[in-house]
Write a structure and sequence with these properties.
With 439 residues, this protein is an alpha+beta fold. It contains twelve helices and 13 strands. The strands form five sheets. The protein has a four-stranded antiparallel β-sheet, with no helix packed on it. The protein has a three-stranded mixed β-sheet with strand order 7-2-10, with no helix packed on it. Strands 1-11 form a two-stranded antiparallel ribbon. β5 and β6 form a beta hairpin.
Length: 439
């Protein structure tokens, strides 16, 4: 327990010493929002609003300044004027759906909206405090709509990227469940920790790659200290799985609101959160999504190699299959579990960093937001099976993104949970799970 308290103290000291001046926050608008006077509107200055609608106006590659954009909806009305860099931002009091309109009368002479551009257009917030609205400008430019096939391919690519980053967290949770039998409800906070540490180290001015490496190491250290300071003593006392699960729920709540206390409740951005789009033929994908896809694939393949081809991997599978028999065979069960917790923390930390770039944004409850999806992936693939967690994560990720073609963005996570329920009705053990006799 002393090690656990030491970890919390170090983490608090790190957050308190983080240079806030280098933090990038979405809550701070690029230009002043001026709410129209109305009894239904929220009071207070626009810069205090926790959510923003923003964008950048460019014509022939050059910023367009002095253009008025208005947003109305959810009982609110506000406007902003594009700055010298072409950027504009409107603070809004609540998330929801807003109608955003560009005042064409304020466009400079010779600058027009592209043919086919939507004006006004609807903007809906989806799991972040930031929503973008794009108004393409330029004479002779025609906005072309995507075909269904192109849109489907884009959503599948995005879903594959999301599924693989989800797999990083799911595989760690599955390893922990397989070796200890514990359903760790604090795993979402391990995901959050990776992103928060990345934000802290980036705030110190470190290169992105070094900040990411240190954040991943910090995630592994948190897993190691959790097991040595909390879970191992509980196992030695013979604590049952249900009481330990309840302890994990309490740990999740304590960690989540400790992070909120020191980190704050606003959404912060990691360096390079806004990445350019890469054109792959007729399909467009963001650079961050593509990088996340590559990193997740490499790490998942490394984990598979370690489990299948190394001694520690074989020992881990032996402990997951039968701890008593593994111990009788000379395997250090506690040592294997300690390694599993460390690896689980590393994978969760890396998953948190990629999740922060995918959303984009770092918040104190970002791990909680995808915890149900992590559970869904693990249960869908088969409890305790690492490769089942991988398969389940990819299915959930692709379904979540593809469903946005027909569903509202706010409902896409509901669809993923629904497909899990449907699969389990026909195969209760999951896709790669084994049937077990109970009683």
């Amino acid at each position: 327990m002393g090690l656990l308290f030491a970890l919390l103290a170090v983490f608090a000291a790190l957050l308190l010493s983080a240079p806030a001046g280098q933090a990038q926050t979405l809550a701070a608008p690029l230009s002043t929002s001026t709410p129209a006077p109305s009894p239904a509107e929220s009071t207070g200055p626009p810069e205090s609003f926790p959510n923003t609608i923003n964008g950048v106006l460019r014509n022939a590659g050059q910023p367009v300044a002095g253009v008025t954009i208005r947003a109305t909806g959810e009982g609110f009305s506000g406007e902003a004027v594009s700055s010298a860099t072409g950027g504009w931002s409107i603070g809004v009091p609540v998330q929801g759906t807003y109608e955003v309109e560009l005042d064409v009368s304020t466009l400079p002479e010779g600058v027009t909206l592209a043919e086919g551009a939507q004006n006004p257009r609807q903007v809906t917030f989806a799991n972040t405090s930031n929503a973008g609205a794009i108004f393409p400008l330029g004479a002779g430019i025609v906005v072309q709509t995507q075909s269904f096939g192109e849109l489907l391919v884009e959503r599948i690519l995005a879903g594959l990227s999301f599924g693989l980053l989800l797999a990083l967290a799911s595989v760690g949770l599955s390893l922990i469940f397989g070796t200890t039998g514990l359903t760790n409800f604090a795993h979402g906070e391990m995901v959050t920790l990776g992103a928060v540490l990345m934000f802290f180290f980036s705030g110190l001015g470190m290169p992105v790659w070094l900040a990411a490496v240190l954040a991943v190491v910090g995630g592994g250290l948190s897993g190691y200290l959790q097991d040595s300071g909390l879970w191992k003593p509980l196992r030695r006392r013979g604590t049952g799985i249900i009481p330990m699960m309840i302890v994990s729920i309490g740990l999740a709540l304590a960690a989540r609101y400790t992070i909120q206390l020191f980190f704050g409740g606003s959404t912060q951005q990691l360096p390079g959160a806004r990445s350019p789009q890469i054109e792959l033929g007729s399909v467009s994908i963001s650079q961050n999504t593509l990088i996340s896809l590559v990193i997740s694939t490499v790490v998942v393949l490394m984990v598979a190699f370690l489990l299948l081809k190394t001694r520690i991997g074989k020992a881990t599978r032996a402990v997951a299959d039968n701890p008593a028999l593994a111990s009788a065979s000379g395997i250090d069960v506690d040592g294997v579990i300690r390694i599993v917790w460390t690896v689980g923390g590393i994978l969760a930390g890396l998953g948190g960093i990629l999740w922060a770039y995918y959303r984009p944004g770092v918040t104190f409850n970002m791990g909680q937001q995808i915890l149900l999806l992590i559970f869904a992936a693990v249960v869908l693939g088969g409890l305790g099976t690492v490769f089942g967690a991988l398969v389940g994560s990819i299915i959930v990720g692709i379904f979540v993104e593809v469903s946005t073609i027909w569903l509202e963005a706010d409902l896409k996570f509901v669809g993923a949970l629904l497909i899990m329920i449907i699969v389990l009705l026909f195969r209760p053990q999951g896709i790669l799970g084994r049937k077990e006799r109970v009683g």
